[in-house]
Amino acid sequence: MSFVLIHGAGFGADCWNELIPHLSADALAVDLPGRGTRAEVELGTVTLADCADAVREDIEAKDLRDVVLVGHSFAGVTVPLVLNLIPGRIRQVVLVSAVVPPDGSRVLDQIDPGVRELVEQSITAGVYQQTREGAAAMLCNDMDEATAASALDRLADDSAALLSEPVDLSGYRRDLPRTYVHLTRDQCYVEELQQRSIALLQADVIDLDTGHMAMISAPEKLAAVLNTVHG
């Protein structure tokens, strides 16, 4: 049984670096198209289907089965596509402050208005590029200066089109155990939106007293939650 870790918007697989050593099982952190090991992919061409296919490709390349699929933040709209692609390989799903808007809606329409304004200001020529200042305000409220600097050094550009693509949540209708890790100090995906996602998913809920990037700010705490879910 393995963990497969899917990062959110504006980051790559290296956002999980602090977490992985604390996990009780092997872990695969996937780079979605346009960053890290897939940096050659043109961001302007990336779709949600491409993101799901990257996860499928990495899982099949290692022939992983009985997977605990962990999705953070924006990965909440990639996970259901993965579940439709390779349902037989996934044992359960864990969503960490994951964006789960109503089926068929756009992510951009569902996020907090204050955060949405920051996001829209960060889009140029189809690329979503966070500033360090904006990201620090949304993502680093529970970090000391050194930890915040390390997190911000890992910021990556992303495809703005993903924010405006209608989402397909049909994969969440599959009969798989699912857990939502509710981050109580999150200033990016705020309380109201997390509660909406939880209601849509009808998931088991575990509270964690951290900000949005729990895998960096509190890796041992998040790992303990994941290890408990893994069993």
From TrEMBL:
- The organism of origin for this protein: Streptomyces vastus
Where is the AB hydrolase-1 domain positioned along the sequence?
3-224
The superkingdom listed in its UniProt entry is Bacteria
Q: Which UniProt keywords apply?
A: Hydrolase
SUPFAM superfamilies linked = alpha/beta-Hydrolases (SSF53474)
- Gene3D superfamilies reported for this sequence: alpha/beta hydrolase
Q: Which InterPro entries match?
A: AB_hydrolase_1 (IPR000073), AB_hydrolase_fold (IPR029058), Sec-Metab_Biosynth_Hydrolase (IPR052897)
- Name any one Pfam family assigned in the record: Abhydrolase_6
Decide whether keyword Protein biosynthesis is in the record: no
Know the name of this protein?
A: Alpha/beta hydrolase
Instruction: State the Gene Ontology terms under molecular function.
Output: hydrolase activity
Signal peptide from the UniProt entry = none
